[in-house]
């Protein structure tokens, strides 16, 4: 290599040396130097050596998916209690699974399933969204309805019907989405666009296959040991609205009466974590 060639090659990298010196000294002109460095690197990459290195085969190692476990508040109840959702898993996964542990306050057994899922290792092939309690006021009061006396599972827009008398067990509210809990849930679901959703209820001990993803319902029922049954799709139900909005993605699981023991919780957790499997 002659002296002129060596001088030209060394000049290509002078901006890099200047940037290092500027950063070390706290110089305010590092933006301009960084621009110069990008130009120098681009020019240097046209050299034969750079061209040869660009032809190296890409690494065969696939980066591990980034998983998360984060809890946020997505609304408040009629009496001001927070509504929380935990996202756990891989946000880039196309498998977006929503679990609602409790919508009727006197049917709380599904809360344990949602809580256990939040403590399990994040899945790399699914993004789980866990709402343990959509009706914290009802859970606190041990009532089906929220603090306004509204059955939240009759307050969604699809098929909503004008309400009967306030105080009725399934009072639908003065209008569709009149309640802060149902409005917050609808907004969350529209944002997530779940590919599968399970809404837990009690006390019939069945998996509802009247609508929703039939293959998922069948496998889920077999894994948890519940029979399949076609339940009535009531006007204003959350699952009816979700399936009408996003296609057959949501279904109801009616848990047995009482509290789930640890083995039962584990069965439901395993069945949910198996949903993304082919």
Number of domains: 2
Roughly how many Å is the radius of gyration?
A: 28 Å
Beta-strand portion reads 15-25%
| E-strand count | 7
User: Helical content, roughly?
Assistant: 25-40%
Mean pLDDT: 84
- Tally the helices: 10
Descriptive notes:
With 278 residues, the chain is an alpha/beta fold. The chain has two domains: 3-54; 68-273, Zn peptidases (Aminopeptidase). It has helices at 3-12, 14-25, 30-44, 48-54, 110-119, 136-141, 180-192, 214-224, 238-246, 262-273, and strands at 68-76, 82-89, 96-100, 127-131, 196-208, 228-229, 250-256. Strands 1, 2, 3, 4, 5, 6 and 7 form a seven-stranded mixed beta sheet that branches. Strand 3, helix 5 and strand 4 form a beta-alpha-beta unit. Residues 2-54 have low confidence and may be disordered.
Note the main attributes of this structure.
seven-stranded mixed sheet, 278 residues, globular, single chain, alpha/beta, 7 strands, 10 helices
């Amino acid at each position: 290599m002659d002296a002129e060639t060596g001088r030209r090659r060394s000049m290509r990298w002078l901006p890099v040396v200047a940037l290092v010196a500027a950063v070390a000294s706290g110089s305010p002109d590092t933006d301009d130097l960084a621009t110069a460095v990008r130009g120098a690197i681009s020019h240097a990459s046209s050299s034969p050596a750079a061209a040869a290195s660009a032809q190296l085969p890409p690494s065969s190692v696939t980066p591990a998916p980034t998983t998360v476990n984060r809890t946020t508040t997505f609304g408040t109840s009629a009496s001001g209690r927070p509504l929380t959702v935990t996202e756990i898993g891989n946000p880039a996964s196309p498998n977006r699974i929503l679990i609602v542990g409790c919508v009727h306050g006197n049917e709380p057994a599904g809360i344990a399933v949602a809580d256990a899922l939040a403590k399990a290792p994040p899945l790399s092939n699914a993004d789980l969204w866990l709402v343990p309690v959509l009706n914290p006021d009802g859970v606190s009061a041990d009532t089906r309805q929220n603090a306004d006396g509204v059955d939240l599972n009759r307050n969604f827009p699809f098929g909503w019907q004008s309400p009967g008398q306030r105080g009725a067990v399934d009072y639908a509210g003065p209008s569709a989405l009149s309640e802060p809990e149902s409005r917050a849930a609808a907004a969350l679901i529209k944002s997530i666009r779940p590919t599968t959703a399970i809404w837990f209820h009690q006390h019939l001990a069945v998996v509802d296959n009247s609508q929703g993803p039939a293959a998922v319902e069948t496998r889920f029922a077999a894994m948890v040991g519940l029979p399949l049954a076609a339940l009535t799709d009531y006007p204003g139900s959350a699952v009816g609205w979700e399936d009408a909005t996003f296609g057959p993605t949501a279904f109801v699981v009616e848990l047995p009466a009482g509290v789930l023991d640890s083995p039962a919780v584990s069965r439901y957790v395993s069945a949910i974590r198996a949903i993304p499997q082919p």
